[in-house]
Design brief:
The complex is a heterodimer of chains A (374) and B (325). Chain A is mostly helical. In chain A, helix 1 runs antiparallel to helix 14, helix 1 crosses helix 15 and helix 12 packs across helix 13. The longest helix of chain A is centred in the N-terminal third of the chain and has 30 residues. Chain A is globular, with a radius of gyration of 22 Å. Chain B is mainly α. Chain B has one domain: ABC transporter involved in vitamin B12 uptake, BtuC. Helix content of chain B is 69%, strand content 3%. In chain B, helix 1 packs antiparallel against helix 10, helix 2 packs antiparallel against helix 3 and helix 7 runs antiparallel to helix 12. Classes of the chains: A mainly alpha (374), B mainly alpha (325). Chains A and B meet through helix 5, helix 6, helix 12, helix 14 and helix 15 of A and helix 3, helix 4, helix 11 and helix 13 of B.
């Protein structure tokens, strides 16, 4: 089955797909009547041209690392967790409850507790769809979509009726105490030029630690092996004594927990209170990130960085080219999902034939004459 | 609550159920042919924008309707190419289409109209007006004078846009096509056992593309109804999850047309009640409006859990057909 070398599968095909997505996006910009090359320059400069830009790019990337890892872990068990949005929202609820209920003496202890709260609530929200998939065979894609909507309604209800500060009209919780303030980039990395307005905060390191842990889990533990085996062939996995219910449940709990931890970055690190719709679609970006990163933590980090840059660069683009609306990011995101996910074979099939021809030529076989084995 | 109030709620139930019904039947065709479609939302949104935008620029609602259907069929074709020709993941393709529509509609709206991602308010000639059936009254004051039957006729049955009547006629049509024609038999067979259909010498790819195009046309009607009949113009994200509620209704109805009608009416009713009463007091308890909004989704999870009758999707759904084995 080795039609292509591994590097082509892991690096070349995603790169070609992303390039195609960017070319089509360029055409969209062209049709709008703006210069795509100039737009690209503005976006790159906006995302990477200053410490300010980097601060936002890495802040967004932190969100996408969490949600991307969540989708990636589920992908390894061939489960499509489309419910990152709802799980992240519930994670925010967990963070808010943990931080508002107790007077934490120091941010480091509060961070550990908040991580626990976020992961537990996120995992809890994934638990019901996971159980229904494992025990009743209900399609996890449909149930997780439904749970996104239920989560959103639940959060609106709680913010309006429970968490809202008396006398305030805004549907948001009270501000967390000063002691649980996570160090921002301006505090721990001012030597890099980060200023006070930078949203980048300590949660970035939590995300990177999660990447290492996910890598260890998937490729260096027995459980990870079982998850991958289950993803490759359910029947073979069951035959090998792997419990499908257990794997489905555990994988989805980990996935939901990772989604929920996104709230550490946004709710605890940036907003410092629970606000409405704080996820801003990051749960869905996670799908694109996991697809592009080929479900590998290193790939996820790189893809998250790309999408972080898109988000920040897109915001700058809106300032400099008012004709291009901020939703252009959503278009690019859609095209990346389309080309790296759904139209994967469109790129793969021609590439496979190119590599086959190359190999035959190298082995001195006439490509026109087929061997009987084929 | 008097009789006329009940009728008014039912009347808005019909209005709100119509886009759900059209999208639900769209999904029915696609999924019965084995193509899962979670991109109903996106197609509806694209159709809503293009119908409103073209109706505004051309001044004709019919031209707008066709533009909306065209946009929706284009996205359907994309979904078909990804999931039939290139054998990609149908769910991922659906997700991509939803985002593509959500982004492109606003980007283009901003370029064309510069009103923050919306179309201008449509004048009445660029909208589908309400049809007053013969012998029916149209103003509330006149309707209140009538007897119960007259009130039902004038308030509930009369006074909808033509797309509402079309949507309700498509239900028996769908049933007839799917269960009483050769085309329908083949379409359902393609969703259950494509290899058998292939053996019989019928093109699986052709059948599936046909189903996907029908899905696009119906989603186009749904979107056009949203922007040119229910509202007067397009606003950002105006489909507001209706595509997913339609998907929920499709599962709730177990992929059958008449059940789809009742499911959509039920979900439309939730919406109508939620719109009219913010919080409903039942004895001591107050049912919050958010609960009413979440109810369709909760019901679907309950149905999917197999607690109230089991929903079994078409067997070959979601799997690309590979001829050579």
């Amino acid at each position: 089955m080795d039609k292509m070398p591994k590097w082509a599968d892991v690096i070349l095909i995603p790169l070609i797909s992303v390039l195609l997505a960017l070319i089509v996006s360029g055409f969209v910009v062209l049709i709008i009547g703006e210069n795509p090359v100039e737009a690209m320059q503005i976006m790159v400069r906006g995302a990477f041209g200053s410490a300010y830009g980097w601060g936002y790019t890495l802040y967004y990337a932190t969100n996408f690392i969490f949600t991307g890892l969540a989708v990636a872990v589920a992908f390894h068990a061939r489960l499509f967790n489309i419910g990152g949005e709802g799980q992240a929202a519930l994670g925010g609820l967990g963070v808010a409850i943990v931080l508002l209920s107790f007077g934490w003496p120091h941010w480091s202890i509060a961070l550990l507790a908040a991580i626990l709260g976020a992961a537990l609530f996120g995992a809890g929200w994934a638990a019901i769809p996971a159980y229904l998939q494992a025990k009743r065979g209900s399609h996890i894609v449909i149930t997780t979509i439904m749970f996104n909507f239920i989560a959103s309604a639940l959060l609106v209800y709680l913010l309006v009726n429970v968490f809202r500060v008396p006398g305030s009209m805004a549907p948001e919780s009270a501000r967390f105490a000063e002691t649980v303030h996570l160090p921002s980039a301006a505090e721990f990395a001012s030597f890099l030029g980060f200023r006070g307005s930078t949203p980048l905060n300590f949660a970035f390191f939590v995300a990177l630690v999660c990447c290492v842990l996910v890598w260890l889990l998937i490729w260096r533990t027995r459980l990870g092996y079982e998850i991958r085996a289950f993803g490759h062939s359910q029947t073979a996995a069951v035959y090998a004594g792997i419990d499908p219910v257990k794997i489905t449940m555990i994988t989805m709990l980990i996935s939901g927990g990772l989604s929920g931890m996104m709230a550490i970055n946004v709710v605890m690190g940036e907003a410092e209170r629970l606000v409405l719709d704080f996820t801003e679609g990051a749960g869905f970006v996670g799908i694109a990130v996991a697809l592009m990163g080929r479900s590998h933590p290193v790939g996820v980090v790189l893809a998250a960085l790309l999408f972080g840059a898109l988000y920040q660069g897109g915001a700058e683009l809106q300032f400099e080219m008012p004709a291009v609306s901020r939703e252009m990011i959503v278009v690019i995101q859609a095209l990346v999902i389309l080309f790296t996910g759904a139209l994967d074979n469109m790129v793969r099939m021609p590439m496979e034939s190119v590599f086959l021809t190359l190999r035959r030529r190298r082995e001195g076989v006439d490509p026109k004459r087929r061997s009987p084995a084929e | 609550m008097d009789f006329l109030t009940v009728l008014q709620i039912l009347d808005s139930t019909v209005r709100l159920a119509t886009p759900l019904l059209l999208a639900c039947l769209a999904g029915l065709f696609s999924e019965r042919a084995g193509i899962f479609d979670i991109g109903l939302e996106g197609k509806m949104l694209a159709a809503a924008f293009f119908s409103a935008a073209i109706a505004f620029t051309s001044g004709s609602v019919w031209v707008g309707l066709f533009a909306g259907i065209g946009a929706s069929v284009f996205l359907s074709g994309l979904h078909g190419a990804a999931s039939i020709t290139f054998r990609g993941n149908q769910l991922i393709s659906g997700v991509a289409i939803n985002f593509l529509a959500a982004g492109l509609t606003v980007v283009i709206a901003q370029t064309w109209f510069s009103q923050g991602g919306r179309t201008p308010q449509l004048p009445s000639e660029a909208r589908f007006g309400n049809i007053v059936l013969p012998g029916a009254e149209s103003t509330i004051r006149e309707i209140a004078q009538l007897g119960p039957l007259g009130q039902i006729y004038s308030e509930l049955i009369s006074g909808h846009s033509i797309l509402v009547y079309i949507a309700f006629l498509i239900v028996p049509l769908t049933w007839w096509v799917l269960f009483r024609t050769r085309f329908g038999l083949r379409l359902r067979a393609v969703g259950e056992n494509p290899a058998a259909v292939d053996t019989a010498g019928i093109s699986v790819v052709g059948m599936r593309y046909a189903a996907v195009v029908i899905c696009g046309v119906l989603c186009g009607l749904a979107g056009a109804y949203l922007a040119t009949a229910l509202n007067a113009g397009f606003v950002k994200d105006m489909s507001a999850g209706r595509g997913f509620i339609a998907l929920a209704a499709l599962i709730f109805s177990k992929w059958r047309p008449w059940y789809a009608l009742s499911a959509c009416l039920l979900f439309g009713f939730f919406d109508a009640v939620g719109n009219r009463f913010q919080n409903i007091a039942v004895g001591e308890f107050v049912v919050p409006v958010q609960f009413m909004q979440a109810l369709p989704y909760i019901l679907v999870v309950i149905v999917l859990a197999g607690l109230v009758g089991r929903a079994i999707p078409p067997r070959a759904g979601g799997e690309p057909y590979v001829k050579e084995r």
